[in-house]
Design goal:
The complex is a heterotrimer of chains A (about 270), B (about 425) and C (about 50). Chain B is mainly alpha-helical and about 425 residues long. Helices cover about 45% and strands about 0% of the residues of chain B. Chain C has helices at about 1-20, 35-45. Classes of the chains: A mainly beta (about 270), B mainly alpha (about 425), C mainly alpha (about 50).
Chain lengths: ~270, ~425, ~50
């Protein structure tokens, strides 16, 4: 038992050491947590109409609510893209940390569960393989339409299709839709710059191994677009929801709690 | 009584002749106002508008790069070395541009205005004189989307694809065949369509950029063209070149022209059909039956095309040309009051896209088995028709065989056609 | 009677003709541009070194 414990400890140590070692050599991290201040917008029931697949798509026998704004009990907001800004006139690093090389080889799964895309928000790199899965007992199609990419794939019930993404990079996330169940929607960002984090169910985000230097970071949400009203202590976001932050070698820049007024998400 | 009526006839015809058909101004390209209104609705609050100067700025950039309907230009950035000469030749553009010339002794010109403009519009915006009365509406080239092509989505059609459409027409639509035109005229029209498409794609890009810029100019000419003839500073030149690079280098060259240059390499390979595909092959009936099963199971085709293939499945979808603007603002396609701002600038009333009736043997994108194979393999751009990525090529051929047999299957003799998984799909 | 009918026909044809031939969908405004600026920009594009 003791031995197992030791081994685990050693393993954990190794992992932390290695990440620290990597982080020291000219690379740093960025973290924070996003919370909604004020009233959280209320999600409306999905516009299911008289779709014949209604039965399959119900959640606990009820018409599902739109998942546009997802918060936990502390109003911490999921699905916010925090990403290094690559838009007009932006400085971006020439090379990325080697730990991101493997990311391209991973097959990313986009599932359909009860007429809902899972995950709601995803990030893929150009050239990556996407597994478009369907766990429902009805047919779906998966229409990905971003600025640079377009795919419209038929995915029959309880099956999966694979596609390989093209080489172009987007600047902001694009849409994923199903034409058969028109209320279904998800978002996907496809770009080469890997410095992207999507806030988790607790509103937390972490971008790892950013080259030390001054970079612009952008906050984006499906319902709010560029989050220009997000409050970040010590920073003033511009009208595209970007802040310029200094990443120091071997350090983690913690932006603390970022509060977003609920009105920003009523688009 | 009769004399009065007679006089009235003469007077009214004379009036109509003089009023309606006077000599008009030379045609001009139309501004993409639908996109403009869409950007306003996306970026601004209710009732706010972009300044009118934006339009002139876009018009100036467009005219500098693409010229006018009578004098077309194309941006060959690398001069004679530019690879774009492979896809566009100025001589071919001139043959299609300008007013229609009827003088048979000289070479042709004005082909586009002669054959295309009345439906597709001078600008290629799908809003020609007759557009509103056609079903389906004529294509608006400016989105850069084409339905019937040998390349996957987001890859432009090849010259061959466009030529096929011009030569064969599109059965079931108002698009006629231009088979009687000599090949060099067809090629000229193909290039002119590509020119109008790239032009329209770039205009949309500019509108998007300008909308996101909040009033700064896209390309600030005052940086290098000082009013008092003063020499621009190095900083000014650098800033100006940066703007040129972003708007023209990235926006036009990389995002638009380069895609058209690469498209021949993206053509989807058509795997040869298995021997059972041949009508005379003994296994053909079984092959058709396999296709029928795929139609209902793996293909999920009945979802839109209906259980009997007559196109009566899902009918509430719109195509991308319509979705492009109806999704941007809260437009209810059934309530014209919600899209009056768009109608005012020429958007045609939204019509749901109709899944094809497969029991009539006409196919818009061509009736060669290869055409049907491509529709299934790649899907149809701009429509809900998805790509059958999960099917093997033999499975696609089986569906093609079934679809081709559909018009001849006698549904009355053996009762109504019923799907194999009847319980799941019948409702 | 015949003449009257043909008169009516002529009116109808003229009316239809005017609808089909002279109905212009010119709701979208013409592209406005600054000729001088367009020429300047054209020259600047030619001067730039594209690669």
């Amino acid at each position: 038992m003791k031995r197992v414990f030791c081994c685990t400890l050693l393993f954990v140590l190794c992992v932390t050491m290695s990440s620290v070692a990597l982080a020291q050599d000219g690379w740093g991290n960025l973290t924070g947590q996003i919370v909604i201040s004020g009233d959280v917008p209320v999600n409306q029931p999905e516009d299911v109409k008289d779709n014949p697949d209604k039965e399959v798509c119900l959640v606990d026998g009820k018409i599902p609510l739109d998942d546009g704004v997802v918060v936990n009990d502390k109003n911490q907001l999921r699905d916010v893209y925090v990403m290094m800004y690559t838009g007009r006139g932006a400085d971006t690093p020439d090379t990325y940390h080697p730990s991101y090389d493997a990311q391209k080889e991973v097959k990313l799964t986009l599932d359909n569960v009860k007429c809902r895309f899972v995950p709601k928000a995803s990030f893929a790199r150009p050239g990556q393989t996407l597994i478009l899965k369907n766990s429902d007992n009805v047919g779906h199609n998966c229409r990905i339409a971003t600025m640079e990419h377009e795919h419209n794939v038929n995915i029959v019930k309880n099956a999966a299709s694979e596609i390989v993404l093209g080489e172009e990079s987007d600047k902001i996330p694009g849409e994923v839709k199903c034409d058969i169940h028109q209320w279904m929607d998800a978002i996907i960002l496809i770009r080469d710059n890997p410095y992207v984090s999507i806030s988790d169910k607790d509103g937390k985000f972490k971008i790892e191994n950013i080259p030390a230097g001054d970079w612009k970071f952008q906050f984006w949400h499906k319902k709010g677009g560029y989050l220009k009203t997000i409050e970040v202590k010590g920073y003033e976001p511009d009208r595209r929801g970007t802040i310029e932050a200094t990443i120091k070698s071997g350090e983690t820049l913690d932006l603390g709690t970022l509060s977003l007024p609920g009105e920003a998400l009523t688009k | 009584m009769f004399r009065l009526f007679f006089q009235l006839t003469i007077i009214s015809s004379a009036l109509l002749v003089t009023a309606g058909c006077e000599r008009s101004e030379p045609p001009v390209f139309r501004f993409n106002s639908v996109e403009w209104v869409k950007q306003e609705k996306t970026h601004l609050s209710e009732g706010e508008h972009f300044p009118e100067e934006y339009k002139t700025e876009i018009g100036t950039i467009m005219t500098a790069l693409f010229g006018t309907p009578d004098d077309p230009k194309f941006p060959f950035f690398l001069g004679d070395e530019d690879p774009a000469h492979d896809i566009i030749s100025i001589d071919n553009l001139r043959m299609s541009a300008g007013p229609t010339r009827v003088d048979k002794r000289k070479s042709a010109s004005g082909l586009y205005r002669e054959h295309c403009a009345h439906c597709h519009g001078i600008t290629g915006n799908g809003a020609g004189d007759t557009a509103a009365s056609l079903e389906p509406y004529p294509r608006d080239f400016r989105l850069g989307k084409f339905k019937f092509k040998s390349t996957p989505l987001r890859s432009p059609p090849t010259d061959h694809d466009l030529t096929e459409i011009l030569v064969n027409g599109i059965p079931g639509s108002a698009m006629p065949s231009f088979r009687t035109l000599p090949p060099e005229q067809i090629q000229s029209l193909v290039e002119y369509v590509k020119y109008l498409t790239m032009r329209g794609q770039f205009e949309r890009f500019l509108l998007g950029e300008l909308a996101a810029l909040d009033g700064e100019p896209l390309i600030d000419l005052s940086l290098v063209d000082k009013p008092d003839g003063e020499e621009p500073s190095d900083d000014d030149i650098e800033e100006f070149e940066e703007q040129m690079y972003i708007v023209i280098g990235e926006g036009l060259q990389e995002r638009i022209i380069d895609r058209w240059l690469r498209t021949e390499r993206k053509v989807t390979k058509i795997e040869p059909a298995p021997p059972e595909f041949d009508l005379k092959h003994e296994g053909h009936s079984e092959f058709v039956q396999q296709g029928r099963e795929l139609f209902f199971a793996k293909g999920n085709c009945m979802q839109c095309h209906g259980d009997t293939g007559i196109g009566d499945g899902q009918l509430n979808n719109f195509d991308d040309w319509t979705n492009d603007w109806i999704k941007s603002a809260e437009v209810d396609p059934e309530d014209p009051a919600t899209y009056s701002d768009f109608s005012a600038v020429g958007a045609l009333p939204p019509r749901p896209v109709k899944p094809r009736n497969l029991t009539r043997h006409y196919y818009r994108g061509g009736d060669h088995p290869d055409d049907l194979y491509l529709r299934l393999r790649n899907g149809i751009e701009g429509t809900p028709m998805p790509a059958s990525t999960a099917m093997t090529s033999d499975e696609i051929w089986a569906v093609v065989a079934y679809v081709r047999a559909m018009p001849y299957l006698d549904s009355k003799k053996n009762g109504a056609v019923k799907p194999v998984n009847e319980k799941q799909v019948m409702r | 009677m015949v003449i009257r009918n043909s008169c009516f026909l002529i009116v109808l044809i003229v009316l239809m003709g005017s609808f089909v031939g002279c109905y212009q969908r010119t709701v979208a405004p013409a592209l406005t541009f600054d000729q001088k600026n367009a020429e300047t920009l054209d020259n600047e594009i030619k001067k730039m070194e594209w690669d």
